[in-house]
Amino acid sequence: MHRFILILALLWAGAATAQDFPALYRVTGVASDDVLNIRAEPGAGAAIVGFFRPGQRGIEVMELGPNGRWGLVNSGEGSGWSSMRYLAREGEGSWRDGQQELTCFGTEPFWHMPIFLPTHRAEFHAMGEGGFELVTDTGALPTTHFPPTLAIPFSGTREGMAVVRGASCNDGMSDRRYGLEGQVYWRGDTQGLSGCCRLADPGN
Fold first, then answer.
1. Which residue has the higher pLDDT, 16 or 91?
2. What is the pTM of this model?
3. Which of 65, 89, 113 is the last residue of a domain?
4. Does one domain contain both 34 and 81?
5. Is 16's pLDDT higher than 70?
6. Over the stretch 64-73, which tens digit does the pLDDT of each residue have?
7. Residues 177 and 72 sit within 8 Å (Cβ to Cβ)
8. CA atoms of 173 and 19, how far apart (whole Å)
9. Are residues 135 and 151 in the same domain?
């Protein structure tokens, strides 16, 4: 019985840790004349595929490597790994708490949807359709734990709901990887939209 409880506790702790990502980080502890390398694999000997500048902010870490020492980040049209020793978390909370700005986007058709939480405003843009504003629900937004999801009901020009789920996602146009999937459902339409979501840098 005790072993069963221990296993459950370990599983719960692992799930809670996974739900903390993606998250935004900034470069710290790097000299002004140096850079933080992005490597093809989570290891100091792996090929360098990009870099971050000293003090650079708004770096989205999608997940941690097996030993927790390396974080998966995007660089140009691809992704790579940077040492977590030189990355410091920006802000508190989780993408599930309804307090962080998100941008969801997809292809076929091309669309993107900035969601300005917690100010309860969103925009929707689609190729050939222009854009329009939406109003998101106020107060606590509905979530689930397993799998981790956040639901964002909206109204305004159109009514519907965006659902953001913690999962590895690719935009279909590059080798970049994202830590969130996104779906948009319009009231009265039987066909929704699928894509990826990223966190917005609060400094921009």
1. 91
2. 0.87
3. 89
4. yes
5. no
6. 998 999 999 9
7. yes
8. 26
9. yes
Give the mean pLDDT of 74-85.
Answer: 95
Nearest CA to 167 among 69, 63, 91? 63
Indicate whether 146 and 112 sit together in one domain: yes
Q: Are residues 173 and 188 in the same domain?
A: yes
Token pair for 121:
């405003």
Strand order in the sheet with 87-89: 59-61, 23-27, 87-89
According to DSSP, residue 137 is labeled P
- The answer as to whether 6 is a domain residue is no
Q: Mark whether 102 and 187 lie in a shared domain.
A: yes
Instruction: Compute CA 31 distance to the chain's CA centroid, rounded to the nearest angstrom.
Output: 28
Q: What is the pLDDT of residue 9?
A: 37
Residue 39, amino acid = R
- Asked if 37 and 110 sit in the same domain, the reply is no
- Pair (115, 183) in one structural domain: yes
Q: Is 3 among the domain residues?
A: no
DSSP assignment string, 84-113? GGGEEE-SSS-GGGS-S-EEEEETTTTEEE
Residue ranges making up the domain that contains 180: 95-199
Per-residue pLDDT at 11:
38
CA distance 139 to 182: 21
Helix (H, G, I), strand (E, B) or coil at 3: helix
Query: In 10 A of CB 148, how many CB atoms?
Result: 21
